Amino acid sequence: xxxxxxxxxxxxxVTGTCFAxxxxxxxxxxxxxxxxxxxxxxxxxxxxxxLGEMVVRxxxxxRLHFTTSLASCLNEVEVVFSxxxxxxxxxxxxxxxxxxxxxxxxxxxxxxxxxxxxxxxVPVGTAQKVRATIxxxxxxxxMQIEFDVASNPEFLKEGTAINDFMSPDRVVVGxxxxxxxxxxxxxxxxxxxxxxxVIFMDIPSAEMTKYAANSMLATRISFMxxxxxxxxxxxADINMVRSGIGSDTRIGRKFLYPGIGYGGSCFPxxxxxxxxxxxxNGYKMRVLAAVEEVNENQKGILFEKLRIFYQNNLxxxxxxxxxxxxxxxxxxxxxxPALILIQKxxxxxCKVRAYDPAAMNECHRRLGDVIYYATDLYDAxxxxxxxxxxxxxxxFRLPSWAVIKKTMKNPLILDGRNIYDKKEMTEMGFTxxxxxx
Length: 437
Fold this sequence. Notes:
With 437 residues, this protein is of the alpha/beta class. It has helices at 10-21, 33-40, 51-60, 70-73, 97-109, 126-141, 161-166, 178-188, 203-234, 238-246, 267-280, 286-298, 301-309, 337-347, 360-367, 377-380, 401-407, 422-427, and strands at 2-6, 25-29, 64-67, 79-82, 114-118, 147-151, 171-174, 198-201, 318-322, 351-355, 372-373, 386-389, 412-415, 431-433.
């Protein structure tokens, strides 16, 4: 079976490589010539554990190919996955220009039946626009060629994306025809031989499922952060509260961890897009509006704790940041709380020393030399007036606290992910603050 994946970003590259791993002949397409040249050399543009080795292995096996021209390979394939970006417009809605550009190219060049699958996260109704765009181009050519559209939203988690794709807990597919259903079954059956967990549904429901899933997870995060902030005011312990409610099987324990807010490429964008979709249909998503507001406020919570501790006198203070990416096991800093915090610290006159195992280059690309990029976590803590934990990387879990205490000017720890024990930190001589205690 031969397929094309349009877009070699996070979703497209992981999708194409994993399909190649199970024997599919995959052509990955991207208009960025430099990126394609790099990929052909085995240079991976994203940080994802194990992906580089898998790309090289499948290129050598002749199952994974890269090109800048969709038109040149279009009629060799049975299925085209559209995995191009859908960045938010200024009003929060999803920008579909890249998705529709792919549809135009397909309609202008197809010569035989093709199944066009939207892999990108897109609003309800996008498949109809894709179908109409392809048909419009066929009409211009005076061609009558059968084709199908489908929706196959991704549920990959950065840092575990390969495992998520190779062993999915479910695969959601929206189709309109039996032919499309059979093709998608053929593609996914190798991943799910013992337990076929593909959920087929209509296309609008598939498009909505992705937004609803991410919005629910974002809601749980903001809810717990709201509860954590109230816990601090009334003297409760959010960790005990989380344990108490998480043991309820109707609620469960996942995504009940308080912190400094969610970030990344999915949750912020998808919450905004769903709110905008509702507005366009004359409805107000009141819960999600509150979720977004709580999250934006939470990104500044550590700064507020720091400001209060130093009684609004932060000028000239040296602040250490452990972690820059929005979550561990990725270098992704899109919508990362670290970006908001760094801005606030610099505006307050602080000197910022930061260390992250993966995101240093990405941070430098975004911010330049306005902060100091440390060589390791101990270098970051040198002469610090406070140490703020932003990302719960494993190497931050058990550092040599004796060395850290000697290194810092003032042993003040602000734990934005609640990974340390307050009693232990206090006994070691640190002033310790976290979220919700």
